[in-house]
Design brief:
The complex is a heterodimer.
Chain A: E1 4-11, H1 19-22, H2 42-45, E2 77-79, H3 92-100, E3 104-107, H4 112-119, E4 124-127, H5 130-140, E5 146-150, E6 155-158, E7 162-165, H6 170-178, H7 182-187, H8 190-203
Parallel strand pairs in A: 1-2, 2-3, 3-4
Antiparallel strand pairs in A: 1-5, 5-6, 6-7
Chain B: H1 6-14, E1 15-18, E2 24-27, E3 30-33, H2 39-47, E4 58-60, H3 82-98, E5 101-102, H4 113-119, E6 128-131, E7 145-148, H5 151-160, E8 162-165, E9 169-176, H6 185-196, E10 204-209, H7 211-215, H8 218-226, E11 235-237, H9 242-251, H10 256-266, E12 279-284, E13 291-293, E14 301-303, H11 316-329, E15 344-347, H12 355-365, E16 376-379, H13 384-393, H14 395-402, E17 405-406, E18 427-430, E19 445-448, H15 451-460
Parallel strand pairs in B: 3-4, 3-6, 4-5, 6-7, 9-10, 9-12, 10-11, 15-16, 15-18, 16-17, 18-19
Antiparallel strand pairs in B: 1-2, 2-8, 13-14
Classes of the chains: A alpha/beta, B alpha/beta.
């Protein structure tokens, strides 16, 4: 059970961060669901071109990139601007964030498919108003800050300086808190699905040809 | 009583049950699979000892990861990159294990999933269509409820034949008027993204309508629906009309009595006259010129003969992203696109690899030669069927004589995954859909455009100043 995320915020001051940036296509050759941490933001994080299986220690790190700096290399929260996770549907983008240790992403908006994928992997996307995002950027730009995200209270809190409420559906909050398996839940409705399917076979038989 | 949009109709047609929390369970008619986003889903299925709910709903083909230099005798063992090979082998194996229909690498029907679905009659109007690929919106051209999903959802669909989703809002884009000569559907959709931005359609199912949409072919409609995700909309669709039905009749193998019954049903998949949209946008297409992207987001679009925008007119946040894009693309303020030297040309991808796209490019290339300054120009048909048709029409010869390489079907240079990739700093005229940093290869520079503009760029070595 996880209802609190507490950690360092890594601000990346960009909008439209697409899933190709979060993890380049090269690493989608993997057939595994884990092990993507070293390839997160690969194009920005390294000066050389990587390939699947390459060791981090053999890469030339871009020391200016925030996630390569101490203590941001231990960040749990990512802060960005508009339309985070737009583009490709690759769930690998969420897997890379999760494997790196990112538990929440704060942005002013998200790509639809990325947003959905997050909840399957216990990564919390938090949508805040632009002014609130701006405030977080100004608080975190000069030195690292630790914030806490209370998932039940739906609040982002920084010491006594800031407390921002965010919107999150209860069912989505529960998915993060309990890490529920959706297939098990849906299969409880097997009978309903079967009945629907039988009806559809009668009304739209061409689909089942 | 208020009328319904086509999206509303498709939604209620597929609704199994709503949940208290606002989500709903919808039934999935068709599921396309490819090698990249499926292995983890199959693994999950195996771990839970589950079988696909309805095996026949699933159709698979390798497309993302495979080399495009190959003949009909190509053996998977000849894929040079062992990791890529494993992924293709894994798809074969998973389909074999579960009895899923697969068009394997040497099948005459192999191709990009979004190209083969419609042309093999596997995408039919009114279907709900999903695939672990964001460009699944393409199938919306047929009046389908089609959307891209993640790998966890691929597993969910395999196991339950259903998907848990929230209903989207309705948006309609009315494209009215006649386009200018030299303008194609690619220009229209690039222009739309330029106007509404890459998040303009987020949260919406976007219907494309208006006299322009009614006038164009299914291929052109597919190009537009394909890129609705680049405007943020995971669902983009068109109401069914005679054009839809004509295409399906040609491509479907349904027995006549069933087809007739289906057509009657499909013709109801139109937005009612009195339907209400949450948002509506009108665009006059008669003023649109050929469009080219200059930056690293599909909204960074200008007319082919315009200058790269100066950052100084924008606020801080916007200026920053424009400056980053210019720096990545090796551009300066107010630079003319026609000043840029191109290294490569790519005609292909699920956006622009259909027969009409190839005809459009070939018409320009007839009797012409690719400029000496272009290192490589490739044309990659979207499917075995497109390739065969083009060869029947002699189009392949026009490409080859002009200096293009005539390749085998696949996603190719749309994404830097298979051997077709840009080298750092190479500039490419591409008919694909994404100009993101590194999309076509590490540090590669992508300019998105129509097949016609790509062909002109191939001949000229630069973007033309006049058409």
């Amino acid at each position: 059970m996880k209802d609190l995320i507490e950690g360092i915020v890594a601000p990346i001051d960009r909008d439209n961060i697409d899933t190709d940036q979060i993890i380049p296509t090269e690493y989608l050759k993997s057939i595994k669901k884990f092990g993507y941490e070293d390839y997160l933001f690969d194009g920005w994080r390294y000066m050389d071109q990587g390939y699947l299986g390459v060791k981090k220690s053999d890469r030339k790190a871009n020391n200016d990139f925030i996630l390569n700096k101490t203590p941001y290399d231990k960040s749990k929260v990512l802060l960005a601007r508009d339309n985070f996770g737009c583009g490709s549907s690759r769930e690998h983008a969420v897997w890379a964030l999760r494997d790196f240790g990112i538990e929440a992403v704060i942005a002013s908006s998200f790509g639809d498919i990325f947003f959905n994928n997050c909840f399957k992997n216990s990564v919390l996307p938090i949508k805040l108003e632009k002014a609130e995002i701006e405030e977080l950027f100004s608080l975190s730009k000069d030195h690292p800050i630790i914030i806490s995200v209370n998932i039940r209270e739906k609040a982002v809190v920084f010491e006594d300086k800031l407390s921002i409420k965010f919107n999150l559906d209860d069912n989505l909050a529960e998915r993060i808190i309990f890490g529920l398996d959706e297939i098990d839940i849906t299969l409880k409705d097997s009978k309903l699905i079967k009945e629907f399917e039988e009806h559809r076979k009668e009304s739209n038989p061409w689909i089942f040809e | 009583m208020m009328g319904y949009t086509i999206y509303d109709k498709l939604w209620s047609e597929h609704l199994i049950r709503p949940y208290d929390d606002g989500d709903s369970l919808i039934y999935i008619d068709r599921h396309f699979l490819h090698e990249v986003t499926s292995p983890q889903a199959f693994e999950g299925l195996k771990k839970k000892s589950l079988k696909p709910w309805r095996i026949n709903a699933n159709i698979a083909t390798p497309d993302h990861n495979i080399p495009t230099i190959r003949d009909n005798e190509f053996n998977i063992d000849n894929i040079e990159d062992d990791i890529s090979k494993l992924q293709v082998v894994e798809l074969d194996k998973n389909c074999d294990d579960f009895g899923i229909k697969l068009f394997e690498i040497n099948s005459s029907n192999q191709g990009i999933v979004h190209v083969i679905g419609p042309e093999l009659g596997l995408t039919l109007p009114g279907m709900s269509v999903v695939c672990g690929d964001s460009h699944t919106s393409t199938h919306g051209a047929f009046g389908c409820l089609a959307m891209g999903i993640g790998t966890s959802e691929v597993e969910h669909v395999l196991a339950t034949q259903s998907l848990k989703v929230r209903k989207l809002k309705n948006m309609r884009i009315n494209f009215e008027g006649k386009i200018k000569d030299g303008v194609s559907s690619k220009d229209i959709v690039l222009y739309l993204i330029r106007k509404i931005g890459t998040a303009g359609g987020t949260g919406y199912a976007v219907e494309f309508a208006g006299s322009y949409i009614r006038d164009i072919s299914m291929e052109a409609r597919m190009t537009i629906c394909n890129m609705s995700i680049e405007a943020g909309a995971k669902v983009g669709l068109v109401s069914v009309d005679a054009t839809t039905i004509d295409y399906v009749k040609k491509h479907s193998s349904l027995p006549k009595n069933l087809l007739d019954r289906a057509i009657e049903k499909w013709m109801t998949l139109q937005t009612d006259k009195d339907a209400k949209f949450d948002k509506e946008i009108n665009i006059d297409v008669s003023e649109i010129n050929p469009q080219v992207t200059w930056g690293t987001s599909p909204e960074m679009v200008i007319d082919f003969n315009e200058k790269v925008p100066s950052s100084s007119f924008f606020d801080d946040e916007k200026r920053k992203s424009l400056d980053l894009a210019k720096s990545y693309m090796g551009l300066s303020d107010n630079q003319e696109l026609s000043d840029l030297d191109f290294d490569r040309v790519f005609i292909g991808s699920c956006t622009n690899s259909r027969i009409e796209d190839l005809r459009e490019a070939a018409e320009v290339l007839k009797g012409k030669k690719v400029s000496k300054s272009i290192q490589e120009a490739i044309v990659v048909p979207g499917s075995g069927m497109v390739k065969e048709q083009a060869e029947k029409e002699g189009i392949h010869k026009i490409f080859i004589e002009a200096g293009f390489e005539w390749r085998a079907p696949g996603c190719s240079m749309c994404l830097g995954m298979n051997p077709d990739q840009l080298s750092p700093y190479e500039r490419c005229a591409s008919t694909s859909n994404r100009n993101f940093e590194g999309r076509q290869g590490n540090l590669g520079r992508t300019h998105l455009m129509s097949p016609k503009m790509a062909a002109l760029t191939a001949i000229n070595g630069r973007i033309v100043k006049e058409i």
